[in-house]
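Objective 1.3, modelling of assemblies. Example input:
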Amino acid sequence: MKVTEAIAKALTHLGADTMFGVVGSGNFHLTNALIAHGVKYVAARHECGAASMADAWSRLAGRPALLTLHQGPGLTNALTGITEAAKSRTPLLVMAADVSARAVTSNFRIDVSAIASATGATAARLHSAGFALDDAVRAYRTARDERRTVVLGLPLDVQAGECTWPGSPDLQRAEPAPPSQQQVADLAAVLAKASRPVFVAGRGARNAAARAALEHLADSCGALLATSAAAKGLFRGSPWDLDVSGGFASPLAAELIANADVLVAWGSSLNMWTTRHGTLIGRGTTVAQVDNDASAIGRHRQVHLPVVGDVALTASAVAGLLEPAPGDAGERDAAGLRGIGYRSTELRNGLAARIRWRDVPYEDESDGNRIDPRTLTIELDDLLPAERVVAIDSGNFMGYPSMFMSVPDQDGFCFTQAYQSIGLGLASAIGSAIARPDRLVVAALGDGGALMGISELETAVRLGLPMVIVIYDDEAYGAEVHHFGPDGYPLETVRFPPADLAAIARGFGCDAVTVRTADDLGPVRDWLDSRPARPIVIDAKVTSDHASWWLEEAFRGH
Ligand SMILES: Cc1ncc(C[n+]2csc(CCOP(=O)(O)OP(=O)(O)O)c2C)c(N)n1
Ligand SMILES: [Mg+2]
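Predicted structure (tokens):
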């Protein structure tokens, strides 16, 4: 059997069914072999776009997409997207064609392993035709079971070789790691005594099983529920949901988190973004951290109680030790609350009224020619169906969709910020739309990031994706303007003349509208009613007199 054929057969047996890429001579045959085995292939226009699509798809599907790349520049073009995926622990298999070992003078020759490792991805390689299948299966398993971005180098001579089919690979996955009984008991003891416990769930808790186990445990000890930005939406619908902890936290959420006496991080590293540079962790707060990766514990914050174990398993085990004593149920108040921990009827009412950013009063700075980005985002939040995925690029604007747009659950938010690159948002929105065709995908971009990744507009149009692409257009690299402007530095390098982004979008085949006031959003309503088969781009000319408050806070981390 041809090596490419054997790899395609094995990967599809393991469950690979979606692939993104740009095809050149080095990945032509393998890509076609995978398509022949039933894999859906999405052709991107730039390898970085393909990588971000694959990253987003894998996050929302919870299993590895395949990314297929030509040798040399195919891989280097994809590197920013691959780095984002690697830093986010996205399960992703990058199939990177490479020159043959003997082709020492080829133009396409680069050190694939060194490049892969340098980004934080796991480097793998097909070593010979005889072992190619083992190498490919091991790479897929590492991506799937260890949530790693794996770059599999595919030398052309090995790809062209022959091998024997050894039979289908085993589908079994490694069991999640249970925590030690001692650590479970210690955490239960701390929570049993806590009067103001708060849970912060992160990327490692972004699944339905973890949500159920954490909510159950939180009910037993009266904890309030927050997430890192990467897990936004996880507790949506719970009356005790504080939404995001960190720079995006609403004033009430920040106050409640800072006043916790026990804070438990679940699959969250408590980095500077999640803790607002540590200010959300009170001086006397006991901090526990639960993570299946021991090396993640204490990486950013001092932790009093480390627990190494799977989030859902640990939460269930701790809840088992905290079950209410018989007769305890009689203490419920009129609202059915046991009044334990942080919870009370008064707080519940306070959360319902004030936990959302859009319920915090602000002065609308719209002036008729430019719209206040807060007002724009609240209008869109009302206008767009609640069953949505919000995918966000990087820049000053990014706080507005993150804070003013609600999402239905943890799969309603695609936040590619582990590498803080601009330009990935449109492609990650396309990957989201392919993963979740049942939801409206909203890409939220700055004008800088939009123009950097704009080649993928053609992909969105070609695929007939009914997405909303909203561009917060301040005609600048606003983050830099607000970073350096206050100190009087020249800003010519980060400001641009107005661009008619709606006209550019129409050129790609999108619907488009320019928005200066809320009334200009009428065409978006019509588009929603029209069962659209193409994207709509909203070029929103936004006010930009000052930095967003979250950015001002974030600059302290630079
Ligand atoms: C690939 C990359 N290049 C440069 C930067 C530095 N950078 C951070 S935010 C930003 C400006 C982004 O502009 P835009 O997308 O318009 O968003 P805005 O800040 O104006 O809201 C730049 C250049 C980066 N993060 N990533
Ligand atoms: Mg801008």
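Residues 329-337 have pLDDT under 50 and may be disordered.
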